[in-house]
Design brief:
Length: 79
């Protein structure tokens, strides 16, 4: 079965890997900050919507992270 990245050239994959790493890092920082603010908000105001907000954004980080791993795997296969 062909990979979803099999139609990309090696240069395109390297460029995509670089941008996906940047986006994953930014997403990780944002989720971390949301968790910190959610903890402080929960301690001061109790359980609110902000308490659960990081739970909605964390899966997006994991999807980005798994895509980075898939791109790395595809690049490794091409070497």
């Amino acid at each position: 079965m062909a990979s979803q990245f099999s139609s990309y050239t090696k240069e395109e994959l390297q460029k995509k890997l670089k941008t996906q790493k940047k986006f994953a890092l930014v997403q990780a920082v944002v989720v971390f900050l949301m968790i910190v603010f959610a903890v402080f908000s929960t301690l001061e105001k109790g359980v609110t919507f902000q308490t659960f907000l990081p739970l909605f954004f964390a899966p997006m980080f994991f999807v980005m992270w798994f895509e980075v791993k898939k791109i790395k795997k595809e690049l490794k296969l091409r070497k």
